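TL;DR need structure tokens for one chain.
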Amino acid sequence: MNFKTFTILSIVMSVVLLITVFMQKGSYVSQAKEAYEKSTQKNYSDASYMVDAINTVVLKNSLLWKIACDASQRAKNSRDFALIEKQSDVNKVLLSPDTKTDKETGYLTRKVAWNSDYYIVASFNKKNSALVDINVDALLGRVEKSVEDHGFSEEDFESEEN
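>> reply
TL;DR here they are.
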């Protein structure tokens, strides 16, 4: 081959190579943008779900705190407490209150909750229905789960350690 033909062929091949590189680059850029948008959307969706779930817990717990604070300031008996509870729960978030007699103290207790983990317990004197105490330990995270809640005993944990 002579030099002139070789030069023309080299230039044509270089142009074809450059066109191929730019076409591939455009494809890679669009693929990268698409992958980025998908992962960003998923991360944003996951984060939004988590923030919404946390906000729900905060709002529902604030309702329990409102009831506890209002009752400690204004309630004198079980009827006052029930009225404060009813007035505060306008969106019907709370479960039906669980009332029973505490075996240790003999007080009538009223457990107000929106799920099994977050609740307050008001104690009333059985004789005159006077409000004695409002226990907010579950809202403060001071309640220990019993063995029945988890299905494990201390022996299960000890045997795994050995």
